[in-house]
């Protein structure tokens, strides 16, 4: 009887650790898609092969710091379109990075963007060269 009780405590402890220690939400997904352009002025989409990375914030030891981990990545098609579909982060705080063939125009998106904000035109249309 005592052995059975100890076994249940150990199994419950392991299960709780697995559920609370993960960086990702187990059953929630996030879809982030959009188009990458060379600039706002030209509105010309980038060529195929530009990589888009979606990072999420994992809380650091200090409340204002953030360690980012990769949620997902995608490569643009011939129209500059990309789509990332993967597990959502527990913190719901994201960052976007675009790396074209030429690193001169690399784009590093804002920090602490929420999942809802990723769906707005501010983040579905990404511009490498600014204006």
Describe the protein.
This protein starts with a helix and ends with a strand. It is 18% helix and 40% strand. It is elongated. The protein is of the alpha+beta class. The longest helix is centred in the N-terminal third of the chain and has 19 residues, at 2-20. The chain has a single domain, classed as Immunoglobulin-like. The model is unreliable at 17-22 (pLDDT under 50). The strands form two sheets. A four-stranded antiparallel β-sheet has the order 3-2-5-6, with no helix packed on it. The chain has a three-stranded mixed β-sheet with strand order 4-1-7.
The count of β-strands is: 7
Strands of the widest sheet, in order across it, are: 3-2-5-6
First-residue to last-residue Cα separation: 72 Å
CATH class placement? Mainly Beta
Radius of gyration from the CA trace?
19 Å
The structural class is alpha+beta
Task: Tell me the CATH superfamily.
Answer: Immunoglobulins
So what's the overall shape? Answer: elongated
Averaged pLDDT: 76
Largest sheet: 4 strands, antiparallel
> What's the order of the H and E elements?
HEEEEEEHE
Number of helices: 2
At CATH level 2, the architecture is Sandwich
Number of domains: 1
Percent range for β-strand residues: 35-45%
- Poorly predicted residue ranges: 17-22
In the CATH hierarchy, the third-tier topology is known as Immunoglobulin-like
